[in-house]
Amino acid sequence: MRLSKAWIIASKDFKTFTKRKNILYTLLYFEGGVSIGLPFLIRYLSTKANSVAALPQLIDAFSFLYVIGAALAPVGIASYSLIGEKVQKSLEPLLATPTTDEEILAGKSIAAFLPAMGVTFLGALIFMVLVDLFTHNVLNSLYFPNWNIVIILFIQAPLACLLSVGYNVLVSSRMNDVRSAQQLGSLIILPLGAVYLMSELKVMSLTTGNMWIMAAILLVVDGILFYLVKATFRREEILTKWK
Amino acid sequence: MNMIEVKNLTKKFGEITAVDALTFSVAQGEVFGLLGPNGAGKTTAIRMLCCLISKTSGEARIAGYQIGNNSDSLAIRKMIGLVPGNIGLYEELSAYENLDYYGKLYECPEADRKEKIEYYLKMMDLWEKRDLPVSDFSKGMTQKVGIARALIHNPKLLFFDEPTANLDPESARVVREIILTLKKEGKTIFINTHNLDEAQRICDRIGILKTKLLTVNTPEQLEKTTWGSRTVIQVEEINDSILAAVKKLAPQDFGVEENRITLTLSDPQKENPDFVQAIVSAGGRIQYVTQLNPGLEETYLKVIQETK
Predict the structure, then answer these.
(1) Which residue in A80, A86, A88, A94 has the most chain B C-beta atoms within 10 A of its own C-beta, making it the best mutation to test that interface?
(2) How many cross-chain Cβ pairs, A to B, lie less than 8 Å apart?
């Protein structure tokens, strides 16, 4: 597989996204809300004497939202990237070029993965700076960086993002309309949302050990999904069976 | 040298046979047209030859490379240009950006790519509109960009799938002229079309496909082999002695309608004078003698009808 070919395809998609403002908005709204809104909530709680003890657990739970965000961010891009090609009927001429199925799939995946991770990192940076700014007085130290956020940003978020990209490629192969694909594609966050909810309800805590276990589960699921996607993304399949 | 060689090429989708034992060849620089009704397997045939879908059985070679062989598939796709039925441009991008993207995918060096984009957009009369998004383009303009896209890497062989379908007559004419220009440049061209007039004007040879390839020939020979050579003699008044004189010369077939006698002859240039003389000797006054050309449409319909 030639990465240069995948990069040509991804670059074309980046250019398309800049001309589709709605795709940019879907990329930004969740991360923006989490990165700016939640630190202000933490700031408010840090002024309440009875809430200060619970702040670290709350910040950890909020940090986990970046795993959810990394899974949510590529939904719009991945579904548009493939269904856009279907709607514009541009898959046949693309498949007629001297490009392998793997290169096209990699290009489409990079096009969804890189912006999603970029926004996730940027949002997390804003979140960490604001949280440290608002809490260092009450916690008597800087809460970030810590091992949890390292695992979240550099292991769980990329794995969740890949999971979402793969799942959305599968969804897009069966759909013809971007909005329906996005709705179905967004369901990928449900298991991750359940983890977040359990941490908020104190059913489980987001300890470093638990974070590693979740990362391992994500890795296994990503591996399974990779084979499914590879089997689905074949020229003949795309031209004759994709709806 | 043959650019395309196809032998017993077959494609089945489950129980359905889309293309059955297709056998033909296309010489370098030739324009070959594939005619056939909807669902005849024309697009499936093109897709197999462009290595977009697999064959079920049989063999096909493009410039010596074998379809169905993974390592040859990339080489084939590199040397062909496809203008599909649905042009499928990226509507958000400009004509220039669309061509630049495909130029990169076809691995054209940057300087060459820029030169080719300018050359083809000027050839298509679209250079002034190069920076407009193609969503603003008419169907004819979109088709022209699609043709430029297929030419960007200077392919040896071009596939056109219904190149003038849904175009207005003026745009269709422009597209036909572009194809004829490419023919003059020596490109090998394979066209799927419903448009019989177009096929007759552009193609050196025509194949009629209805799952199986029913016949292949030049448009003129196709008419001749399908209908034979037919002569119509219009006489002022036909009587029994004229009919007896015609019968005596034993044409392959003949028919009478009002005051016209239609003769099917094996060698009209040699036989026509004998029939004219016989009719005149029998007292007939000939108004005109003409060669009957049923046209490709009639020929096509006859060939298709005969398979039912």
Answers:
(1) A88
(2) 77
Inspect the interface and report whether the beta carbons of B89 and A240 lie closer than 8 Å.
no
**Is the CB of B107 inside 8 Å of chain A's CB atoms?**
yes
Q: Which CATH superfamily is domain B224-294 in?
A: YebC, transcriptional regulation domain (3.30.70.980)
* A31–chain B nearest CA distance, Å: 26
Count of CB atoms within 10 A of residue A193's CB?
16
Q: Match domain B2-217 to its CATH number in 3.30.2090.10, 3.40.50.2300, 1.10.10.10, 3.40.50.300.
A: 3.40.50.300
- From A4's Cα to the closest Cα of chain B, the distance in A is 9
User: Would you call B93 an interface residue with chain A, using a CB distance cutoff of 8 Å?
Assistant: yes
Edge-first strand listing for the sheet containing B157-161: B80-83, B157-161, B188-193, B31-35, B205-210, B212-217
Number of domains chain A contains: 1
- ipTM, two decimals, is 0.84
Bond into A145 cis (ω within 30):
yes
CA dihedral A124, A126, A128, A130 (to 10 degrees): -150
Selecting from B77, B89, B91 the residue whose C-beta is nearest the C-beta of A97 gives B77
Is there a contact between A34 and A123 (Cβ–Cβ < 8 Å)?
yes
Model confidence pTM above 0.90: no
Digitized pLDDT (tens) for each residue of chain A, 243 residues in all:
888 999 999 999 998 888 887 777 877 888 888 899 999 999 998 888 777 788 888 898 899 999 999 999 999 888 888 888 888 889 899 999 999 989 999 999 999 999 999 999 999 999 999 999 999 888 888 999 998 899 999 999 999 999 999 999 888 888 878 888 888 888 988 998 998 888 888 788 888 888 899 999 999 999 999 999 888 888 887 888 765
Q: Do B104 and A8 touch (CB under 8 A)?
A: yes
Bridge-partner residues for B192, per DSSP? B34, B161
Ranges for all domains in chain B classified under CATH 3.30.70.980: 224-294
Judge: A96–B50 Cβ closer than 8 Å, yes or no.
yes
